[in-house]
Backbone:
């Protein structure tokens, strides 16, 4: 199984109220030095086949799926990347 | 400005209804071969100072902030990593 990660973030010019709320609360909680916070979505897709079998056509299909289904490209940017399958944990 | 990315995902053993809804819809939209979808949050933090100035103590503070404020560690895992500052766009 290959893991493909799709990150969806608001475009830089779009106001991010959630991110701003987090950023404004941080000093009150004692966390200084964070100039800006942007919040978005992360999708982890488990794709059949191994990472090496993920050819350009398969990645193009996933990009097309992300563009039509996971992101609203009017206000959001997205990135698609293949990640090693064992999830990085805290 | 250094960019630190905090990814927050539901723990593997926690049911992810949003991810399941996406995964079930994909075949109807003509996207086959996606065995599982997990949806989580991505935070992009712009931290004062450059990436090289981000020492272990600063990263430990950010990890502490993520643990107490960005993730619910009862049901979520999180990862913290330093990323190059120019955002990867679609």
Residues:
């Amino acid at each position: 199984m290959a893991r493909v990660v799709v990150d969806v973030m608001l475009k830089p010019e779009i106001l991010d109220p959630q991110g701003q709320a987090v950023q404004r609360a941080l000093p009150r909680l004692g966390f200084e030095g964070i100039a800006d916070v942007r919040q978005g979505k992360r999708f982890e897709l488990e794709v059949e086949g191994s990472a090496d079998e993920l050819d350009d056509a398969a990645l193009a299909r996933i990009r097309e799926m992300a563009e039509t289904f996971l992101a609203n490209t009017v206000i959001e940017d997205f990135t698609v990347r293949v990640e090693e399958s064992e999830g990085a944990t805290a």
User: Anything to note?
Assistant: The CA atoms of residues 2 and 47 of chain B lie 5 Å apart. DSSP finds two helices and three strands in chain B. Strands of chain B lie at 2-10, 34-47, 76-83. Residues 2-83 of chain B form a domain with the Mth169; Chain: A , fold (CATH 3.30.1280.10).
